[in-house]
Amino acid sequence: MRVLGALRTVAVALGASLLPALAGAIPFWLRLPPAESSFADEIDRIFRLILWITGVIFVIVEALLVFFLIRYRHREGRRARYTHGNNRVEVIWTIVPAVICVVLALLSRRVWAEIKQRMPEDAMQVEVTAEQFAWNIRYPGPDGKLGTPDDILTLNQLHFPVGQKVVVSLHSKDVIHSFFLPEFRVKQDAVPGMTTKVWFDAAHVGHWEIACAELCGLGHYRMKGFLTADSREDFDKWLAEQAAAGAPSPAATAPGGPAPTPAAAPANAAPPAPGVSPPADGKVSVPPADRTPAAPPAQEGKQTP
Amino acid sequence: MLKRIWYVVLLSAFTLSFVACGGKEDEEEEAPPKSAAATSTSAAAPATAAAAPAAGGATVTGKVTFTGGAPQLEQLKMDADAYCKAAHPAAVYSQEVEVNGNGTLKDVLVFVKSGVTGNYTAPTEAVTLDQRGCQYHPHIFGIQAGQPLKILNSDGTLHNIHALPKINTEFNIGQPFQKMETLKKFDKPEVPLRFKCDVHKWMGAYCGVFNHPFYAVTSDQGTFEIKGLPPGNYVIEAWQEKYGPQDQNVTISGSESKTVDFGFKG
Amino acid sequence: MSTVPSPILPGPAAPAPVAHELPHGVHPAPTSFWRKYIFSTDHKVIGKQYLFYSLFMLVIGGFLAGLVRWQLAWPGKPIAFMGKLMPEGMPNGQMLPEFYNSLFTMHATIMIFFAIMPILIGAFGNFVVPLQIGARDMAFPRLNLASFWVAVPAAVIIIWSFFVTGGAAQSGWTSYAPLSAIQPRGQTLWLLSLLVLGISSLLTAVNIITTTINMRAPGMTFFRLPLTVWALFITAILLLLALPVLSGAMIMLLFDRVLGTTFFLPAGLVVSGNALSNAGGGQALLWQHLFWFFGHPEVYIMILPAMGITSEVLPVFARKPIFGYRAMAYSIMGIAGLGWIVWGHHMFQSGMNPILGTTFMISTMVIAVPSAIKVFNWLGTLWGGNIKFTTAMLMALSFVSMFVIGGLSGIFMASTPVDVFIHDTYFIVGHIHYVLFGGSLFGAFAGLYFWYPKMFGRLMNDTWGKIHWFLTFVTFNFVFFPMHFLGMRGMQRRIYDYSQYAHLKGLQPMNQFMTISLFVLGAAQVILVLNFFLSLRRGKVAGPNPWRANTLEWQTSSPPPHENFDHDPTVYRGPYEYSAPERADDHWPQDEPPSGAAPTRAHAHG
């Protein structure tokens, strides 16, 4: 027994000293993405706890399996042990897994209630309506109420201030989508005919992506949104810009007069305005492809990188 | 021995049924997508795009004017997609109503609505609908029933071409590859026929599908020209995306030129 | 080693042998080719027919997986011959997103409904159950014939759906509404095919249940049943009760698609800018509840038979009784019973009331316990054994070790907050494949190598079997274990091109490694195919009991005669009496009379 104790101490010491070194050396694909929201860490903690528990069980079970296969392999003259079981050990290995499961369930329940059952009261309200294949994001306008004509609409752009909790009301126009923020450990299905809610916050500024996590058609893989946490001033500025940008082109002045020319380059100006190009003009600059470009069919000859 | 034969038979039966039932359904109305050269459906009359069936015939020209206040056009949210935003650093507005500098309307579809007699074979040369800079080019166009429509994706990003006809067959095809082409055809006349991209919400185009080649789209001068009309009584329609259709009658007796003007009010 | 009947010994009189004339209701063996091999009512023939059916569909399902993995490894890279085979879905050989969606949909559908279930329940269920309980055939031989021949058009329809305009079904094998309600025609064919297949499954289920209850040989009490029969019996009950729910839901979906009903379509749907003309009033979540109410028992339908086969194979080759027979039987019932109240764990993030998330989490955690009990009992079976490593044994051992991984990964998703992150990611896909491939398919392979001699009278080559096992086992882990890592990084399921996302961009090398491993895995299966077919002709003659096993199927010739046994066996003991101290031999057939009495078995046909 003393030997075992000593062995254990050595193992712990070794592990403790190696772990920090190892932690740096762990490749990215063995790590969860960096946790961003205030509850992401709690989720990760449960994940790691389960990882430890299942890891230990895995090692023990598989090691026992291999050990038995070697130890009890067929050899001439040997005979197997004739036993039909052992009730005591059945009870033990029924109760122990049950206890582990109950403990995990209790720990998980608390976090679950915090994430999904209770929406924070002091949160900024944003409405996201998913459709094939974009996220329609709606902020309350100056009147502070969602659902009024002064609401600010964006497409795929979700900004929010750092340190401010955000409650997103999810809707869908057509099929089920799922609002997934991997770094924030946020995921909630957007279901047509229902409103679902999810909340999150960020501790520091940054840019992330919104992914769709429920198959919604051919563009499911491309249903990407942009999540930005701004400082409070930057957020207010951005929101004001969105409100202005949402404004359509200014109205015309004289009937039958020349077409209105807004300050920004309008779509109706003579070419080569980007909005309207004569067919086969090719004057619009086409950015490089946004994915690992596939070799187009051979007949074109040239590829745009 | 019998066992072996049985197994062989069973296996071949399965293989055969798989192969036999694997024959492709020939229901699709489009030709398999090929490169630029459109596949011809039949020995068509020597045709250039939307050519008049015979030399001669009347010409109908006109202008589509716009009076009143030009409507407020929605600004397109190109920042929804980094790729589209890169193509358009400046603001882009909707093409719903395109008022030219001279007070006329661009992209109004003008066509002979009724009165056409005789059959006009569809040209074999394809009409190209290009997706470039996250917009359709052209925005409005005409095509003949049975004429190939080549849908091209010049962008290096996913567009899906979703046609939403009311009479013809709907289709929805992803085009994730740059320079990808899909060939389609519409069999029945229909005006208007809407296209949209589901990835880029603002993208929309309309076409008119006709049994004849007597259609045109107004230019950036607001004018249109329809050539080769045989004698007869016709109804000419001008269709604008926001303001809808307007009809006028015209009678052709010989090879004269007729002017038909339309006016839309804002 | 065939059993040699010992001479009649003096002593207590043995029970009189049953007369050889056929009892009432039993038909004589058919003589025509068609009745013997094609439209047979013989459960052994039908079992073999299901075997060929499921192996064929397994190849197709595997091919579809190969296409999926190709796209994941090299997005957009063309496959020339596919361009010719499927010009609509893969123009010029390049895969379109909608075709990719149909690929994983059909891969899962075919594997689940047309490969795994038919091989476990249709092939082994039909072939083994009557033999192991000492019956001449199933309770309803003609229903059995109908069951197989109804399954055939279902397979034809599902394959045909690839070639209709719009392609095969594209909404995932789970076919969530409203997406599945608005998809092209292939979805309707998918529904029709599965409705037809459901009939086939129900007929088989009825047969297995009735046969097990009514047709056990004298002395074959429930607790002397081989665990394979227990597993298949309970599975059949699950099938009987769960499948109609799926069929009902699919009919409702079919009506939504074709007749304008709105079971799953709420009001106000706008698709692509067009408002749907239906009146609404339906609920999207209703589909999920109905589907998963079937779907969860379904996954136990797929694992329980494999567990039964493992419980069969392990004692035979460890030469030891199963450890904890009653615990094993009760845990099968426990898993089946609890399987009805966990379906919501597929729907934690679905928008259903979060309180239900907690209740379903608790029931899901609880159902881990009977599975754990089984694993420990399998370990107990090996402990102190005298283990022979035949291919069947290696496959069964792989089942145990891989099922442990699959089961443990399930604990992660049982925890609702962790599921927030890993739901609909590749973590789930990894779990699925560890239980369905690492579990069910290895179990099916174990059954194949184990019962092949009984089915065909010859042994498969064991050396090549081991090579097949080794390659399969290693490459299987290379393909599917990294999926847990992909899921941890947030890579979603059902995603045509993950490189669109910045946080997933570095994952291509791993995906490529997995794809290449899959190609090796696929190639390794050629060994099985060759071994299977060459052994039919050139394998060593098996004799009645090559494994020296106890259960009744091994106490008759290989393959058995039409009526299975030349007389009705009588059972005297449990199925796993191996290495009993009072025996010189280390096995003790179930129907061997107690020592001192004469064996009443006639000569086994060799």
Rounded to the nearest angstrom, the radius of gyration of chain B is: 23 Å
Cα shape of chain B: globular
Strand order of the largest sheet of chain B: 7-13-12-9-10
Biggest sheet statistics of chain C = 2 strands, antiparallel
Shape of chain C: globular
Mean pLDDT of chain C: 93
Task: Describe the main β-sheet of chain B briefly.
Answer: 5 strands, mixed
Helix content of chain B: under 10%
Q: Which structural class fits the helix and strand makeup of chain C? A: mainly alpha
* Beta-strand residue percentage of chain C: under 5%
Strand order of the largest sheet of chain C: 1-2
Oligomer: heterotrimer
Relative strand content of chain B = 35-45%
- Can you give the mean pLDDT of chain B? 83
Number of strands of chain B: 19
Low-confidence stretches of chain C: 1-9, 16-20, 598-606
Biggest interface, residues from each chain: A-C, 98 and 112 residues
- How many helix segments of chain C? 16
Outline the structure in words.
The complex is a heterotrimer of chains A (305), B (266) and C (606). With 305 residues, chain A is α+β, with helices and mostly antiparallel strands. In chain A, 33% of the residues lie in helices and 19% in strands. The longest helix of chain A has 32 residues. The C terminus of chain A is likely disordered. In chain B, a hairpin with a 5-residue loop joins strand 2 and strand 3. Classes of the chains: A alpha+beta (305), B mainly beta (266), C mainly alpha (606). The interface between A and C is large, with 98 and 112 residues.
Which descriptors apply to this entry?
heterotrimer, A: 305 residues, alpha+beta, 5-stranded mixed β-sheet, 4 helices, 19% strand, elongated, C: mainly alpha, two-stranded antiparallel ribbon, 16 helices, 1% strand, globular, disordered N terminus, disordered C terminus
Furnish the topology, listing elements before pairings.
The complex is a heterotrimer of chains A (305), B (266) and C (606).
Chain A lengths: L1 H24 L14 H32 L15 H31 L6 E8 L2 E6 L12 E4 L1 E5 L4 E7 L4 E5 L4 E5 L5 E5 L5 E7 L12 E6 L1 H14 L60
Parallel strand pairs in A: 1-5, 4-10
Antiparallel strand pairs in A: 1-2, 2-3, 5-8, 6-7, 6-9, 9-10
Helix pairs in contact in A: 2-3
Chain B lengths: L1 H20 L36 E10 L14 H6 L10 E2 L5 E2 L2 E6 L12 E6 L2 E3 L2 E5 L3 E6 L5 E6 L6 E5 L4 E6 L4 E7 L7 E7 L4 E3 L5 E7 L2 E9 L3 E9 L4 E3 L2 E4 L1
Parallel strand pairs in B: 1-18, 1-19, 5-8, 7-13
Antiparallel strand pairs in B: 1-15, 2-3, 4-14, 4-16, 5-6, 8-11, 9-10, 9-12, 12-13, 16-17
Chain C lengths: L32 H6 L4 H31 L6 H6 L11 H37 L7 H20 L25 H29 L12 H32 L11 E2 L2 E2 L8 H35 L6 H14 L15 H29 L8 H24 L1 H7 L3 H31 L5 H19 L1 H7 L19 H31 L68
Antiparallel strand pairs in C: 1-2
Helix pairs in contact in C: 2-4, 2-5, 2-16, 4-5, 4-6, 4-7, 4-8, 4-13, 5-6, 6-7, 7-8, 7-9, 8-10, 8-11, 8-13, 9-10, 10-11, 11-13, 11-14, 13-14, 13-15, 14-16
